[in-house]
Design a protein that fits this description.
The protein contains two helices and five strands, in the order E-H-E-H-E-E-E. It is an alpha+beta fold. A five-stranded mixed beta sheet has the order 2-1-5-3-4.
Length: about 80
């Protein structure tokens, strides 16, 4: 299964890219397993495990880590936002 990932804000800066096309291995079929797969890449990817990181699938915010992903999906990654 292949997906397109778009990274925003701090994630884009830390990862040094705004987008990538990625072929996912079998078993990566939800937002949660995608996040685990990306974090397994090591630093700086582990930043995506922080509480508050949000994902959107094809323009709709994923309601949780169990949200399914499918071949051809466009997944946006928004890091945790801080501020006041």
């Amino acid at each position: 299964m292949a997906v397109t990932l778009s990274y925003f804000a701090d994630a884009r800066e830390a990862l040094g890219r705004s987008e990538e096309r990625l072929e996912l291995p079998p078993g990566v079929a939800t937002v949660g397993t995608l996040r685990q797969y990306l974090c397994a890449r090591g630093e700086p990817w582990t930043m995506l495990a922080r509480s508050g990181t949000r994902f959107a699938i094809n323009g709709a915010v994923a309601p949780g880590l169990a949200s399914p992903i499918r071949d051809g999906d466009e997944i946006a990654v928004f890091p945790a936002i801080t501020g006041g």
